[in-house]
Amino acid sequence: MTRTTIERQYDDDTPASVAIVDGISTLEGTDGAATTDELGFRLYDYVDPEALDTIVAEGSGAGDVVVSFRVEAYHVTVTNAGRIRIRFRE
């Protein structure tokens, strides 16, 4: 059975935007360092990666933050607690 959901964690060494691409790469069955050509999309086409990383960074003073958006066939949820959930939209 194909895995349709994956959870990742991010931190100062691996920002949320990088962990999202890694997670989608895993679900797509490609290398974790997949290029935009291999994946067929750029994260920037769906969300500003730098803004996302800033919003969910620990210690940003924003309180509890949850950001959800769609990337291709996936629904992505990111929290400022360092957690990412990527789910295939059926």
From TrEMBL:
InterPro entries: HalOD1. Pfam families: HalOD1. Residues 12-87 form the Halobacterial output domain. This is HalOD1 output domain-containing protein. It comes from Halosolutus amylolyticus.
